[in-house]
Amino acid sequence: MHYCSSPGNSMFCRNFMRPGIIQASLKTQKKIIAGNTKVARNVNMEKLRSGYLFPEISMREAQHIEKYPDAKLISLGIGDTTEPLPDIIASSMANYARSLSTADGYRGYGAEQGNKALRKAIAETFYRDVQIKETEVFVSDGSQCDITRLQLLFGSNVSIAVQDPTFPAYVDSSVIIGQAGDFEGKSRMYGNIEYMKCVPQTSLFPDLTITARSDIIFFCSPNNPTGHAATRQQLEQLVTFAKVNGSIIIFDSAYAAYITDDSPRSIFEIPGAREVAIEVSSFSKFAGFTGIRLGWTVVPEELSFSDGFPVINDFNRIVCTCFNGASSIAQAGGLACLSPEGFAAVCSITDYYKENAKILRNTFDSLGLKVYGGKNAPYLWVHFPGSKSWDVFTEILERTHIITVPGSGFGPGGEEFMRISAFGHRESILEAARRLENLYS
Ligand SMILES: Cc1ncc(COP(=O)(O)O)c(C=O)c1O
């Protein structure tokens, strides 16, 4: 028997030899065969609908490569950065790493909240005009990780609202922590989550007059996937809505570096936001740090729970307990990004992706397809009226060998839309534009 490879040695085999407990052992054996352990699966994990969107796309991509091994696949899908890091930034990390091999340069744990100089540089670079203190900035290993830490901070008894469509991590982390009800197949929504429709008819912003109150409002601007950066007036409405309802906004500004017009880059540009908002942000798309892992979260001192307790104190506790600070090497890279030379180098790369977005936008425009986004974000949101977005995904993949992302993966409001990423080498973007022209012209 498999479990008795060393007879009489394992607990299972010893018990199996004693007649009095044979029956119990058989039951145990049955359970072991069914699942190896006696640990019940987390019911919240069971609730999660299917694979997370991007692993699902990766799986389909792998199947496609197997089917067409010679095809030149182009990815306008997952939204990963492609251009090499500026030398000044890579060198700063390499130098820091090298110094760790010296007696003088070696450092162990850093402050859980992040390197003081980096917290200061983040406050001064991104929040100079809105008076965020460096002590309100917590350096992280990426905003996705902090989204989950914030869920842990608020716990399972709060209600949440999300834009529909939006980045799937808010809903999935909410389900995992136990805030959500069951998934309803027909509406394709979880119970106990307020889905705020952000469709072209509502200017890609929620109609707050019909939005129910929630404790926590996740709000992403520029939004992934629609590419819409909320205007100042829209964000003023959002802050007022949160104030009236006593809600907390978790504002995700991961794509703020792509804003080209005068839309706010931070929620803290809106008066009153300090009392109702937290901001999560990232070096990932701003500086090509998707693999290096670096982000930050701003929790203002004024933000408090209903009993008056400061949220920042609890967030600090979560950071100290569930995280031990971002990699010191990544933080050295982050500091280099915020030096004058590093900042200019990083901005030239975001400009490159913005140019890609313009090329793709012109392509879809010329094909007569309605396209949103791409001006303040590295994503285009293309409408395919009457079509199911997974069907469009399959058609584009089969006929052009281009990976896109079906809009429905971002919520029911994304059906009939495709998200097109502008991250890519220029020649791939131009080639993708040619293939799409051939397919749709
Ligand atoms: C809106 C949004 N927030 C957060 C993240 C995660 O960023 P990070 O790499 O910092 O975890 C992403 C990644 O694509 C994103 O699109």
Automatic annotation (TrEMBL):
<feature type="domain" description="Aminotransferase class I/classII large">
    <location>
        <begin position="72"/>
        <end position="436"/>
    </location>
</feature>
<dbReference type="GO" id="GO:0009862">
    <property type="term" value="P:systemic acquired resistance, salicylic acid mediated signaling pathway"/>
</dbReference>
<protein>
    <recommendedName>
        <fullName>Aminotransferase class I/classII large domain-containing protein</fullName>
    </recommendedName>
</protein>
<dbReference type="GO" id="GO:0008483">
    <property type="term" value="F:transaminase activity"/>
</dbReference>
<keyword id="KW-0808">Transferase</keyword>
<dbReference type="InterPro" id="IPR004839">
    <property type="entry name" value="Aminotransferase_I/II_large"/>
</dbReference>
<dbReference type="InterPro" id="IPR015424">
    <property type="entry name" value="PyrdxlP-dep_Trfase"/>
</dbReference>
<comment type="similarity">
    <text>Belongs to the class-I pyridoxal-phosphate-dependent aminotransferase family. LL-diaminopimelate aminotransferase subfamily.</text>
</comment>
<keyword id="KW-0032">Aminotransferase</keyword>
<keyword id="KW-0663">Pyridoxal phosphate</keyword>
<dbReference type="Pfam" id="PF00155">
    <property type="entry name" value="Aminotran_1_2"/>
</dbReference>
<dbReference type="InterPro" id="IPR015422">
    <property type="entry name" value="PyrdxlP-dep_Trfase_small"/>
</dbReference>
<dbReference type="InterPro" id="IPR019942">
    <property type="entry name" value="DapL/ALD1"/>
</dbReference>
<dbReference type="InterPro" id="IPR015421">
    <property type="entry name" value="PyrdxlP-dep_Trfase_major"/>
</dbReference>
<dbReference type="InterPro" id="IPR004838">
    <property type="entry name" value="NHTrfase_class1_PyrdxlP-BS"/>
</dbReference>
<dbReference type="GO" id="GO:0030170">
    <property type="term" value="F:pyridoxal phosphate binding"/>
</dbReference>
